[in-house]
Design brief:
about 375 residues, alpha/beta, Rossmann fold, N-(1-d-carboxylethyl)-l-norvaline Dehydrogenase, domain 2, 2 domains, four-stranded mixed β-sheet, 17 helices, globular
């Protein structure tokens, strides 16, 4: 059982996780790149946590609050990375020379191929220690920061798949964090967690196909209700079919969006448009206020690009995904293919399906 945790990142999620772990009795360090962002937390000695419906609440006293990565990593048995996935490679580089044998690094969440990117980055930067990298399929909390040293948890998900790299270490990781997080369940392997990434389907396309409305209203409309028209839903369905087909090409039976909506919200419909509109929780959720949003700058390169890249490597048509990636690149005036997690960047371009599968399960190549 882990007793010492370091949380990397002091945003909405990082503050909530650090405070929650401290209230559970763990020794917790909180790191943030910019010290000004955590100075008040350090002065107060912790974070005040509020929760809905009788969840964890109180003052979570932290053992360490720092912007010194060496100090933060030295504290930890388990390192919780709670930053946008677009920063995973940067975090990996920063931790490389400080990691020690036996430590566990968990990405919250990994998006798609996050654990593979993190592990490759630390290896490429000279890390030879025996570190286990794992990733969650989605973030365990719905949370926000209420102030410089305050956080609020609206909901803790009941079951969140988690997988280690290699998957043969899943049980070890789950056992280590079970006392704090019994909600994490065996996610099979990091291909399963990454290819069941529903944000890749819902976020970028829904944002980009409503670009005019977002810019005109500054997001003053219901994102999932007003934004998901029958035509938009048809595009989402195409992207979802491509994702499921890519997963099938590497031997995985991924959940469809309709299956996920039923599993997560007990919502059904004849098609995706109807199912989304039958989900009461989507009513009232506003759209992003700007197109400079993580639904594009994070979910396109770290979710859509790796899925599409795997598809192209293993012979799956991903024209829908390519179109959304291209539109996002044009609007943001950047090349998300170049910035994203492609099989070439991850060193997978020559791997067969069997080699990839054996690597994620056992950590070795045929």
């Amino acid at each position: 059982m882990a007793e010492k945790y370091t949380v990397l990142g002091a945003g909405h999620g990082g503050k909530a996780m650090a405070a929650h772990l401290a209230l559970l009795g763990a020794d917790v360090a909180l790191w943030n790149r910019t010290f000004d962002h955590i100075e008040i937390i350090r002065k107060r000695g912790g974070i005040e946590l509020e929760s809905a419906e009788g969840g964890p609440h109180g003052f979570g006293r932290l053992k360490l609050v720092t912007s010194d990565m060496e100090e933060a990593i030295a504290h930890a048995q388990v390192i919780m990375v709670v930053v946008p996935s677009s920063a995973h490679a940067e975090i990996a580089k920063a931790t490389t020379c400080h990691l020690k044998d036996g430590q566990i690094v968990i990405l919250h969440p990994g998006r798609t191929l996050g654990a593979l990117e993190f592990a490759k980055t630390i290896r490429d930067n000279g890390c030879t220690t025996d570190v286990t990298v794992a990733e969650a399929e989605t973030f365990i909390y719905a949370s926000r920061a209420d102030g410089p040293a305050q956080a609020r948890i609206f909901r803790i998900k009941e079951a969140v798949p988690l997988a280690a790299l290699p998957a043969s270490r899943n049980e070890m990781v789950l056992d280590c964090i079970h006392h704090a997080f019994p909600q994490f369940i065996d996610g099979v392997d990091v291909l399963h967690t990454g290819l069941n990434n529903m944000g890749a389907i819902f976020h970028p396309a829904l944002t980009l196909l409503n670009a005019g409305w977002i810019e005109h209203t500054n997001g003053e409309y219901q994102f999932y209700i007003d934004g998901v028209t029958p035509s938009v839903a048809r595009v989402l369905e195409v992207l979802d079919r491509e994702r499921v087909t890519v997963a099938s090409s590497v031997g995985i039976r991924a959940r469809t969006s309709l299956e996920w909506l039923k599993l997560a919200y007990d919502t059904e419909g004849a098609d995706l448009h109807e199912a989304i509109h039958n989900q009461p929780g989507y009513y009232g959720i506003k759209a992003p206020t700007t197109l400079h949003h993580r639904y594009i700058f994070e979910d396109v390169p770290m979710s859509l690009v790796p899925i599409a890249s795997l598809g192209m490597r293993y012979g799956v048509s991903v024209r829908g995904m390519e179109s959304i990636i291209r539109i996002g690149s044009i609007i943001h005036r950047t090349d998300y293919w170049r910035r994203g997690r492609t099989v070439e960047r991850l060193g997978l371009e020559q791997w067969s399906v069997s080699e990839l599968t054996r690597f994620v399960k056992e950590g070795v190549i045929d």
